[in-house]
Amino acid sequence: xxxxxxxxxxxxxxxxxxxxxxxxxxxxxxxxxxxxxxxxxxxxxxxxxxxxxxxxxxxxxxxxxxxxxxxxxxxxxxxxxxxxxxxxxxxxxxxxxxxxxxxxxxxxxxxxxxxxxxxxxxxxxxxxxxxxxxxxxxxxxxxxxxxxxxxxxxxxxxxxxxxxxxxxxxxxxxxxxxxxxxxxxxxxxxxxxxxxxxxxxxxxxxxxxxxxxxxxxxxxxxxxxxxxxxxxxxxxxxxxxxxxxxxxxxxxxxxxxxxxxxxxxxxxxxxxxxxxxxxxxxxxxxxxxxxxxxxxxxxxxxxxxxxxxxxxxxxxxxxxxxxxxxxxxxxxxxxxxxxxxxxxxxxxxxxxxxxxxxxxxxxxxxxxxxxxxxxxxxxxxxxxxxxxxxxxxxxxxxxxxxxxxxxxxxxxxxxxxxxxxxxxxxxxxxxxxxxxxxxxx
Length: 441
Prior knowledge:
It contains 13 helices and 18 strands. It is α+β, with helices and mostly antiparallel strands.
């Protein structure tokens, strides 16, 4: 069921992105009276799942969910249809149109994707707002994992900044981004009442960006284990826990923090554990003996720091949507820059549809779905603008050359460059898919 939910989210997201991207080519082509022979969601080598013809255009759904296409008459594209090369250009063909019209047709797809990303991010801000944990609410400091300790973080630290980024909102992922993307080489923490500035070794850019460490947050907020709510009929309810109880020992060992207590509880799934608690209004320590559920849970919700949600009006959400889109695109550009510098290994960062699918998660959450779709829309626009023949950016590159030089590249140059670009893209996709399969194995 988890896999089905993940795949369904991926297919729906790609369907939205691909359909709107191809509409960005389709409608400008129609406006300039260019014949569009096919409009396909997903690729259809050998056969299609569904197709119908309306007017001069065949509409269909392919079986290979790696993209989609519109086949425009008189255009050399990934279909490699060369029949038109032996005939005189016709008024309705792409090759007969002025360079500026062909340029608009080609940038239409990425333009739609950029706009879609902005609209979706703005919608997310308007509907859900921005939920965050103020850093000042992390009054007990942080709990650090082993990789965070390698960087120099310690239990109980309160993070002030990393690089030039002020840590006003508690965000472990942002800490990693500043190191990987923005070359942060130091951070500041409050430790034992004193503010310290500590260095970050350059090697952590590649260490943190590796697939092995992708899921690590380095740290989380540290909290005592204070019970806020008890599920009726749960192991905690049966054992006699009450709201406000604070767990301080597990099986006779002192455990002050929630993370440490949870680690022991989960490790004892299906077994009884002795939990020492301090109950409000009592001076002694009580010992309760719940049997942990087979799922590793006691059936309680614990107190967490006060999350805050910043709400935005419709008009306020628009600039926030633009801001988030620009920030995301900027991070992608910086990530590519770090790869060219060798600080991020391309092999560790590349991924196929398998990597993308896993980001949606095994439960259907609309906010996460639309956030992923918005991010993919911006990413799709960026990647499509790369000056690689076979992508929109390759066509744009040749069109800009034509506008500037006044000379149109020959059909043979376009044909061979498109073939070369297509082969490069296919090899890259196979390589990325192979990486994902090896990671799964």
